[in-house]
Amino acid sequence: MTVAAELELKSFVLLRLGERRFAVAAGQIAELVAPSRVFRFPHRTPKIEGVLLRRGRMIPVCDVAESLVGKRLTERRLYLIAVRTYGAKTEWVALPVTGECELINAELMAASASDEPHVAGWLSHGGDVIEVLNLNALTPGSEEISGSAPSQQSLEVQP
Amino acid sequence: MRLALPAKPTPLRAEQIILFRISGQVFAISSASIQEVRSADGLTGGTTELNVPDIRKVREALRRGDKSHFIVNGAAHFGLAASPGMLVFVLRRTRTALLIDAIEKMTTMTRLQALPLSFCHEERRWYRGLTALDQAVVPVVHPDGFLTQEEIQLLDAALPPLESSLEDAPPETQLPQ
């Protein structure tokens, strides 16, 4: 048995926000796409900028940089499309990133009780210790819904 | 790596919608939800002033017979820059009349995507969902989403007693159902 197998390596995607790198479990990443138009409309959810239109789907754009590095991104090169779970449901969310992303294998070190809620764990790569992100804690979601949401029934067209 | 795709928007029968503009932002509403379209200028004399401190977006009520529609300033409701509303949509089966800037056009939508779950505040009441038209995304407003029941109660309490002199309303455009 190799050392790597003993360590139970897992796949992660490394993303860059300004000068810092973060990791997301590779299983949560759908694709990496070039910057495209963000359609904006009035809303009250912090961090959400608008939506991307991609192959007929509207994907919310969530700028997590302010939470993670303390300032909004002025430059963005790509959108990392990640899967966000809401209870039993999953949806895509687009995270603006400032550099190329990299797929790596690394050992996940568990988060401690003192870590921020958005930290799912830690990994060591290229001499850096990198936060593995918990997207459910980092991005807004239905657990914060205020008021009653229209039911799926209401989406049916009335004749 | 292949992931299960999130649920696709459900194809719908075509629904006629009206695209309208408030402070430069385009919205859509089902034409079936609109009872009347009236010029804001033409409302003079047919409205009752209201001053409810907690509900700044409503300054007037439009009385029609024994029923009042509260005129919601669309720009204030959505938090957009103030704009001189030119038209009022009286919304069917609601107590709301919506002050807007202009109608863009009538068109048809064939697909409505539920608002993504990342949007998790008041906008979930505001919108039925999103639709894509001409490679643009347009939010489709919910006619019931402009005033909550609590707000309607507060506004009702602020209304003066009904006066019969308000029956002679100015001309209106009645939309077919």
Q: Portion of residues in helices of chain B?
A: 10-25%
Using only C-alpha atoms, the radius of gyration of chain A works out to 17 Å
Q: If you average the pLDDT of chain A, what whole number results?
A: 86
For the biggest β-sheet of chain B, the strand order reads: 4-5-6-8-7-3-12
Report on the structure:
The complex is a heterodimer of chains A (159) and B (177). Chain A is mainly β. Chain A is 8% helix and 45% strand. Chain B is mainly β and 177 residues long. Chain B has one domain: OB fold (Dihydrolipoamide Acetyltransferase, E2P) (Beta Barrel), CATH 2.40.50. In chain B, the strands form three sheets. Chain B has a seven-stranded mixed beta sheet. Chain B has a three-stranded antiparallel beta sheet with strand order 2-1-9, with no helix packed on it. In chain B, strands 10-11 form a two-stranded antiparallel ribbon. The N and C termini of chain B lie far apart (49 Å). The interface between A and B is large, with 47 and 48 residues.
List the keywords:
heterodimer, A: OB fold (Dihydrolipoamide Acetyltransferase, E2P), 6-stranded mixed sheet, 3 helices, globular, disordered C terminus, B: mainly beta, OB fold (Dihydrolipoamide Acetyltransferase, E2P), 7-stranded mixed sheet
